[in-house]
Amino acid sequence: MSTATPPRLGPRAETLALGSLLIAIAVLAMKAVAAWLTGSVALFADALESVVNVTAAGAALAAIRFAAIPPDANHPYGHAKAEYFSAVLEGALIIAAALAIIHQAWSSLSSLHVPFSPAAGLAVSAVAALINGIWATVLTRRGAVLKSPALLADARHLWSDVVTSVGVILGVGLVALTGILWLDPLLAALTAVNILWSGWHLLRESVGGLMDEAVSDGPLSRIRAIITADAEGAIEAHDLRTRHAGRWTFVEFHLVVPGEMSVSDAHGICDRVEAALKDELGNAVITIHVEPDVKAKHKGVLVL
Which range is the signal sequence, renumbered to this chain (predicted)? Predict the structure, then answer.
């Protein structure tokens, strides 16, 4: 037996994604002004990363809207995996931006100069970083509650952007104070390395979701413990399989019951196990295949 397919996600994730897009545009404009005021290649690199933020936020909004489409004949398990495509795109864009920044930093070595208006430019950049930090906190909390890969990916990228911005602000201020001009392209290159590392981790996690990666050891142990505790009347559960699809966790296994047990009693055990798993996992789709005792494999989850 199986539970119903996932229902449509409410508008909260879409609202947050739209907010990310609008904030990303505003922050990009502020960072562009900061780069223009100073002529700093490091601040230009920071602004270039915000171009990625805008593109990624737009992709996340589109993915969340598509993921919220109810299941249909062609997609009976829903469209939740669409969010992973957004996260993969964001990871790829981050890596592309990092490579572009490295190229720009290298090219700027031949035209080093003192920042033009460092105080004004750094002040604008600091405000942009503060806005990103506040919004990253909101996305981290709400993304975890909604179990949205797209929102969590956006939050992780924004936190990386905040760290980068703080480092760039301190570094460009140091360049202005000391006159050591090569620090500017060096900071840009270090910014690119940090962005590259963030993009790689994001890309790897997102591809894992697309590849139906199983739940981690902690949740898997709790799933096994719930089956053991709540399947009283059954004999064993075997061939347990799990996977994630966006905010949904899919669990399926074979439940062995005594051969003489009625269908009604076996169904009651399944209902009890499903309810307990949903209480633990939240958004979950549970599929249980009931088998008679002659199918017992004497391995897997033994029921107490």
Answer: none
Q: Which residue is it, tokens 């119903």? A: 4
Query: Taking the mean position of all CA atoms in its chain, how far away is CA 198?
Result: 12
Under 8 Å between Cβ of 53 and 45: no
What SS3 state is found at 90?
helix
| pLDDT band for position 7 (cuts 50, 70, 90) | very low
- CB under 8 Å, gap of 24 or more: what pairs does 133-141 form? 133/158, 133/159, 133/162, 135/19, 135/20, 135/23, 136/161, 136/162, 138/16, 139/16, 139/20
R_g (Cα) of the chain, nearest Å: 25
Dist. CA 163–CA 16, nearest whole Å: 22
Give the tens place of pLDDT for each residue, 293-304.
888 877 766 664
Domain annotation for the chain: domains and CATH numbers: 12-210 (1.20.1510.10), 217-302 (3.30.70.1350)
Q: Which pLDDT does position 73 carry in this prediction? A: 81
